[in-house]
Design a protein that fits this description.
350 residues, alpha/beta, two-stranded antiparallel ribbon, 11 helices, 12 strands, 19% strand
């Protein structure tokens, strides 16, 4: 399926681009700031909600530019920890999902960057069925906007770790980052943005050159190439050594510590030997390891390591001088693992 034309998605236009559009229509330049505020501060979903914009201008914009607002299809709430999982319908009737997580330091939202994913990681439900299309920057932003409107509280942190590989949609991701951190919009600090990639080396370096103050997270999940190839097809293209070299470059350019995500799969990558080998890879680097007990996916055979194995793995890393944490399990009562709700909706299970 063809991507939605970015040029036709009004919410994806930067303030500068919106200004150029307004000027091209012969309108007064201050209208661009008004419209941008309606979209990215007041978070409206329709032209008719822009009360101080002349009807004639709105009609002209409607002719060529859609708002492509997302529609909430379903919300699942975990009453135990307050986590909410959102299923959204796009303008072309695809579905994507996002998660709202509540922490003492503020609300975090995990968003998707694509409809589906073509990376093929075997422990992830998001890749089942492959990639349908990229999301526009506006659609990435609107996941946050709709959740903030629904919840009534400001979003403090954003993680781009939902369905899709952000660096497979790099231009839209960069546009999204610049707009979500824009002082004219929601103005979320770049330090509160985290992006997760399975390790597309050239894009890691390209991001480093932009010198954004964001957190880079690498989905590593194995301490060597042979084991990584068993669960992550991307390992056939990029060696771990190449990914680590790109991460070193990122740290050199930004001064930002890299996080390595490691999903613990029982009997696959949770052994003492794996912990020792991972320590050897990372011991000289300013980094952090986020251990993730893998979420069972019914279409896959992998199972979660038990708590004793998880703690033993963490302690071995720490003994070797590696900063490690175990990701807090949130939304465990609502299938909050990436891709599960979307998959259930597509197959008619919800």
């Amino acid at each position: 399926m063809d991507n939605i034309d970015l040029k036709k998605d009004l919410r994806s236009l930067s303030l500068e681009e919106l200004g150029a559009l307004i000027n091209s229509l012969g309108e007064k330049s201050f209208r661009a700031k008004q419209i941008y505020e309606w979209l990215h501060v007041k978070l409206v979903s329709a032209y008719d909600e822009m009360k101080n914009i002349p009807s004639a201008l709105k009609e002209r914009l409607k002719e060529d530019y859609e708002l492509n607002a997302l529609e909430i299809v379903r919300v699942l709430k975990d009453e135990e920890d307050g986590t909410c999982k959102f299923l959204f319908k796009t303008a072309d009737n695809n579905v994507i999902e996002s998660v709202l997580m509540r922490y003492e330091h503020g609300n975090s939202v995990c968003i998707s960057s694509q409809v589906g994913c073509r990376m093929g990681c075997k422990f992830c439900a998001s890749t089942i069925g492959g990639k349908i299309r990229d999301l526009t920057a506006g659609e990435m932003l609107d996941q946050i906007y709709e959740i903030q409107k629904y919840d009534g509280q400001r979003v403090a942190n954003v993680v781009v770790m939902g369905t899709g590989e952000p660096f497979d949609n790099f231009e839209a991701f960069v546009r999204f980052y610049e707009m979500i951190t824009d002082k004219s919009g929601l103005n979320i600090s770049g330090r509160n943005i985290t992006v997760s990639t399975c390790g597309i080396v050239e894009k890691i370096k390209e991001l480093a050159d932009l010198q954004y103050a964001m957190t880079l997270a690498i989905s590593l999940h194995a301490p060597n190439d042979e084991l990584r190839r068993q669960t992550m097809p991307i390992a056939n293209k990029y060696k771990i050594s190449e990914i680590l070299e790109a991460c070193d470059y990122f740290f050199e350019k930004t001064g930002r510590r890299v996080t390595f995500e490691y999903s613990l799969i029982a009997g696959v990558n949770d052994s003492k030997a794996c912990a020792d080998e991972l320590s050897g890879l990372l011991k000289s680097r300013n980094c952090h390891v986020n251990l993730i007990p893998v979420n069972p996916v019914k279409e896959r055979d992998y199972r979660r390591s038990d708590n004793r194995e998880i703690m033993a793995f963490k302690k071995l890393l720490e003994k070797n001088g590696i900063n490690a944490t175990i990701r807090r399990g949130m939304g465990k009562n609502i299938d909050a693992a990436c891709g599960q709700l979307r998959r259930s909706y597509i197959t008619g299970d919800v």
